[in-house]
Amino acid sequence: MTYLFSDAGRAELRGAIDGETLFAFDLDGTLAPIVADPAGIMIPSGIKNGLLRLGRMAPVAVITGRSRADALAHLGFSPRFLVGNHGAEGLPGDGATEREFIRLCRGWIAQLQAILPDADGSGIYMEDKGATLSLHYRNAPDRELAHRKILEAVSRLDPEPRRISGKFVENVVPQGALHKGEALLRIMEHLGCRRALFAGDDVTDEDVFGLRDDRIFGIRVGMVEVSAARHFIHEQSEIGLLLDEIMAILETHPGENSP
Ligand SMILES: O=P(O)(O)OC[C@H]1O[C@H](O[C@H]2O[C@H](CO)[C@@H](O)[C@H](O)[C@H]2O)[C@H](O)[C@@H](O)[C@@H]1O
Is the CB of 127 under 6 A from ligand 1? Predict the structure, then answer.
């Protein structure tokens, strides 16, 4: 992996983007620092302003594991594309499938309430996001025990969901729901974009990096041993710098059809 703010990383970024590139970002851990309470995130105002400015120069998407409504409340503005539930919510034309995902989740929540009646007592927090759900154990007094209970409970769900691990969380996702990589490709196709940039910090973001699609410039937030991303930044606080760098490049390479 190449550090984005090295000479080589900067040169590769310059060669990879212009005003017709789709710029897509994950939310938690990327646009907002990770905090203990999922409801307590704060997107720094510099990042919000940067996204708004970038949105006037090129298409911008936020692709998040949160529900769209929740993400919107934190963003305070609508990016051109806002995909929620890891790709399961908010893509053009997917209304009927989303309703089916919500129905499935209602069933899983009822089952989990029976399997994990003491969830709160174990420090497990169930986040109902409509089309998917998340079981958090960050704040459990015994994280290992809480995690084991979650894994056991999820393994008993019927029908079997797709389970994706995250930062002290297990995400329960309907089989057949698009993942973040597929969602990004859908938006590119919809817009006719030949190139995209995507930045993300977590396991579900690897669904984008793992496409290994040369048209997509992937940036992992936080260096990890195993990632399919080709570039990384050290930490979330560098996102503001990334937005500035992107906009400086677009000012000199606006793209043929940009405003
Ligand atoms: O795809 P993302 O936008 O990165 O969303 C992934 C999950 O983020 C949230 O949980 C994570 O962030 C919380 C706040 O910093 C943190 O407390 C938690 O431990 C993390 O797992 C969100 O609550 C989930 O719904 C998202 O799926």
Answer: yes
